[in-house]
Amino acid sequence: MFSYPCPIGSNVSPSVSTNTQTSNLQTSVAINEPHIVIEGGYPLSGSIQVAGSKNAALALIAGTLLATSGVTVLHNLPNITDIADLVAILNSMGAIANLSQGNSTLTVDASAGRFNEPPPHLVSRMRGSLQLLGPLLARQGIVRLAMPGGCNIGARAVDLHEKGLRGLGATWTIDAGCFFAEAPFDGLIGGAVYLDKPSVGATMNTMMAASLATGVTTIENAAQEPDVVDLANLIVAMGGLIEGQGTSRITVTGVESLHGCEFNVSPDRIEAGTYAIAAVATGGDITLIGADFNALSPVLSKLTDMGAHVAQDGNHVRVWSGPVQTLTGTSIVASPHPGFPTDLQQPFTSLLTLVHGTNTIHDSVYEGRFGHIPYLTKMGANIKVEGSVTIVSGVSTLSGADVKATDLRAGAALVVAGLAANGQTRIFDVHHIERGYQELCQRLRQLGARCWHVNVSDTDMLVME
Ligand code: UD1
Known about the structure:
Layout: E1 2-5, E2 11-12, E3 29-30, E4 35-39, E5 45-49, H1 54-63, E6 71-75, H2 81-93, E7 96-100, E8 105-109, H3 120-123, H4 133-140, E9 142-146, H5 159-166, E10 171-175, E11 178-182, E12 192-194, H6 200-211, E13 216-220, H7 226-237, E14 241-243, E15 249-253, E16 262-264, H8 269-281, E17 285-289, H9 293-305, E18 309-313, E19 316-320, E20 332-334, H10 345-352, E21 358-363, H11 373-378, E22 382-386, E23 389-393, E24 402-404, H12 408-420, E25 424-428, H13 431-434, H14 440-446, E26 450-456, E27 461-464
Parallel strand pairs: 5-17, 6-16, 12-13, 20-21, 24-25
Antiparallel strand pairs: 1-27, 2-3, 4-25, 4-26, 6-8, 7-8, 9-11, 10-11, 13-15, 14-15, 17-19, 18-19, 21-23, 22-23, 26-27
Bound molecules: uridine-diphosphate-N-acetylglucosamine.
């Protein structure tokens, strides 16, 4: 870490004009705002340990509320702000939740069984807080939850969460900006739930609520994401009865009580995939330690299609390639697991901006994941958006610029672009990125990147770490 005097009040006012739906975007940023600064053009090289999965961890933390007795210990949590916020929510609800081991281990005692309403100002910070609905309804028969927040990437409806809980006999209303669900007098009753889309969150909420219901619940067209499997495995380790996790048909047999247990969070395939994409975009050679090769295969197979190389040795995954300009193009359709993950389509778009030819990206999960595009255009990318399809024509170079992270994965896309660009990129609104990437700049420096997180200290020094 080092520091230099902060030029308080000095402003840069980039004007971003694009040919996309978000054209004529104007931004004004002050460099005394926290930001990430990247000197681009250095190939990533070396190895890093993959962090625990953010999306799995959020669901698992909510899942700890199901334990009617004992203490649940979660290991391998990522050290990111979303986790800290959800732990704060649990504590303000009256559960006893303590982070330790550098925030990688969480101990939760939820045996009290009656909880306060989750505080709206924290709930509104992330979509993951929606996962509190299922366990709270199961434990206390009634739940009131403020509207969750999270990335602004499309409509993000909640009708399937409602459908799942109604399928177990609950009533559901929306009142004064809050969701309100109530179980029948004798508790939730297992039922047949068909999800019109394989929603990750709705599958998880239904599974959690059903685990303490009376009787058997089947969830058809369930999400198959590894995060759903992690949550099902936690509930099984707590004494629950779940089968079919990882397939489109999950069966949950309700039990009377669940107990605490110890559980390891799976590696984050989105974090690992982001580093893999960045390695290829910079012509680098990295090894991801503790990665789940199978969970990464949708993105790794695209990288090898393009001419990059991938090798697996146990839980070490090596990714390397020649200069990005030597790669061949590919098109992407982001879709539910095991399809290409929507959370990686934005970083992958940054890679494609430097690949010869014209390629398309279609996100079939979210209709509005385009926040990165005006800023990639500002950096010199040639991108058009037609409906829900992004059309990228490769350019020979990107140039560093002042840009803003409009959401978590848009921020990741700008990091990839900044690493591959010529010159300096400064990324503002970094709080979005901090929601999901543990120690991003330190890890990138470990891989040879020139990348710092810049903060303003109490003494008006710019602190770079
Ligand atoms: C989770 C992840 C997110 C990821 C997404 C898809 C967390 C905290 N977030 O979000 O990073 O991008 O899975 O892999 O785990 N939908 C409805 N009605 C509903 C629920 C969802 O129509 O009730 C739609 C959504 O608008 C979206 C699609 O279903 O188009 C998928 O959403 P879903 O799988 O539920 O995503 P999340 O669980 O919110």
